[in-house]
Each structure stands twice: as structure tokens, then as C-alpha cells.
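> call design_seq(struct)
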């Protein structure tokens, strides 16, 4: 039995399916279009041409026995993505991850049964905007109530000083978890490590605190 099913093999769905396979997962890919299905034949465990809005077809494929189904149907078929998500929920699929194209689409997908909704275009746009606005923050991950985890370039003014001297926790309200330096990672920090230009700090704190230190660079 496949561990994942991906419905819709446009650009997004194809990347999800192929990357799951590259991570060693068993994937069933489903698309109504012959061209999209044929492109992935031989690269996944199973590629099937089927109409995901057809309850009978979904039952025949036994998608209800697959632990996670990704509804990656594209922009030209919003209605199909909603109907497919509703059918999957009715069939008892344990985890449904659906792609949303708009905020309204996302709300409807949640309403009809999606357990998780992703908006790759919106998320990529937000990530790019942050990267452009704060080029010194290389990566950023929101951890909910735990704060934000980020990788920040060491400000030039910090070079030659230690974390203890800089008193990063008190002055900037950030916890430095590690230092990335020339391909290696320094963890278990004592506070006496001298920072050098080009270091990357892996920090945990609020978005405002991260913005504050990023703006020093």
C-alpha cells in the first residue's frame, strides 16, 4: 500500500510526488490528464489516470487506506479540488493536505474536510518579500508560541567579540543556539566563542527581536 497519494500532477503536485519518492516514500500519483500521468510513469510506485471527483474511482483505488493524501489540483479546477477533498473526507482518509489558491478557497477546503491547507504561492511570496526586506536573515521558521527560529548573518559590529561580551540574550532578547562557520556548525556554546565576519547565527526569539539584530548588519 502506498504511504502517500498525490492528486493533480501539475508543477506543484509533480514536485511533491517526486520529492516524496526521493525521500524513500511510496507514492500513488493520480491525474485525469494522460500527458501528466505519462510523464511520471516509471518514477513513482504507481501513476494512475482517474477522475478524482468520481467517488467510485476513488473507492476502486482504495485511497481511504492511504495514510496521507495530497490534493494538488491546480488553478484551473478549484471546484474539482473542493469536491475531491470532500469525497476524501467522506471516505475516511486519515490526513488530507490540500492546496489552496486564495484565502476563500482555503476556508472552503477546511470546511469540507481538509486537515491541512497549504498555499505555496502565498508562502513563497511571503518568503521572498522577507528575504528582500531583510537580506541578512537567510532562513526563518515560525515555531508558534515558541517563537521564531532564524539564521542571521553576524553584524559587522559583532566581529571580534564573544557572545558573552555582546550579551545577546539580555540586549537583544535572543537565544543563540549555534554558529555556522565555513561549513561547520558550532553548538553547545559556552559564550566565549569569538565571532568572525561571515559567521551565521542560529537564533531563537520573537520576530521583532530577529528583525532588530538583522537590521544591525
Amino acid at each position: 500500500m502506498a504511504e502517500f497519494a498525490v492528486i493533480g500532477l501539475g508543477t506543484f503536485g509533480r514536485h511533491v510526488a517526486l520529492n516524496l519518492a526521493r525521500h524513500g516514500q511510496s507514492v500513488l500519483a493520480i491525474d485525469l490528464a494522460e500527458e501528466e500521468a505519462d510523464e511520471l510513469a516509471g518514477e513513482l510506485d504507481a501513476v494512475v489516470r482517474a477522475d478524482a471527483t468520481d467517488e467510485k474511482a476513488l473507492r476502486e483505488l482504495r485511497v481511504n487506506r492511504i495514510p496521507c493524501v495530497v490534493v494538488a489540483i491546480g488553478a484551473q479546477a478549484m471546484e474539482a479540488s473542493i469536491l475531491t477533498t470532500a469525497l476524501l473526507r467522506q471516505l475516511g482518509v486519515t490526513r488530507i493536505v490540500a492546496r489552496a489558491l486564495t484565502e476563500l478557497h482555503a476556508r472552503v477546503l477546511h470546511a469540507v474536510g481538509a486537515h491541512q491547507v497549504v498555499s505555496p504561492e502565498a508562502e513563497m511570496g511571503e518568503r521572498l518579500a522577507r528575504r528582500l526586506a531583510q537580506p541578512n536573515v537567510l532562513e526563518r521558521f515560525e515555531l508558534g508560541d515558541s517563537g521564531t527560529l532564524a539564521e542571521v548573518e553576524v553584524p559587522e559590529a559583532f566581529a571580534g567579540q564573544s557572545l558573552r561580551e555582546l550579551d545577546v540574550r539580555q540586549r537583544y532578547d535572543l537565544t543563540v543556539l549555534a554558529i555556522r562557520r565555513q561549513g561547520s556548525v558550532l553548538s553547545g556554546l559556552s559564550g566565549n566563542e569569538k565571532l568572525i565576519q561571515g559567521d551565521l547565527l542560529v537564533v531563537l526569539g520573537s520576530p521583532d527581536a530577529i528583525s532588530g539584530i538583522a537590521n544591525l548588519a
